[in-house]
Amino acid sequence: MQAVEAAVGARTSEDERRITANLPCTLDRFSGVLGPAFTAATMPVTAGLIERMFQDGELTVLAAKAAIARPRPYTLKPDLATFGHRSDSTSYPSGHATFGYLAATVLSHLVPDKRQALFAFASSYGANRMIAGTHFPSDLEAGKIAAAVIAEALFRDPRFQQDLARAAAEVAAQDTSTVR
User: Fold this and answer.
1) DSSP string of 69-138?
2) So what CATH class is 14-69+90-130+138-174?
3) Residue-range domain boundaries for the chain
4) pTM of the model as a whole
5) Distance (Å, whole) CA 62 – CA 36
6) Mean pLDDT by 10-residue block, N- to C-terminus, for the chain (180 residues)?
7) Which pLDDT does position 146 carry in this prediction?
């Protein structure tokens, strides 16, 4: 709780802008790393892959949340100055951290030279949840681990492999000057 309180106490208006901008779990969240061509509008196949990946990951995360039932920081400390929506779901693991790392894993297969930047973004995407006061540090770490496990299962799935190949073709067809 001390780490959450410190993060919340140090939260800036720039943090709040970033937290608000990064809430939806979509391909568009990564356009700052990959460039303006990486949006649902310009890459519908890749966006669909990320959406299905998110849905698969969310099912796993929600099952873990239900089984573990760890209260969120603001449930334990109702006067915590959270930023944004207070979810009714439990805290562990962080679904946003899971999405960030899972998307970074998948996208790094499509744009391997951006791997380091993708994972740096995933880390900050998850950290935003602690800065907002909605997760503990261990929730974020559990999201990172969950993403690795989910990715391993997805990469073995023939349907996912086909979807990934279609997304790779879409990425390869893009004008490379639009990829940062």
Assistant:
1) -PPPHHHHSTT----S---SS--SS-HHHHHHHHHHHHHHHHSGGGHHHHHHHHHHHHHHHHHTTS--HH
2) mainly alpha
3) 14-69+90-130+138-174
4) 0.91
5) 31
6) 94 88 78 90 94 92 95 94 86 94 96 96 93 95 97 96 96 66
7) 96
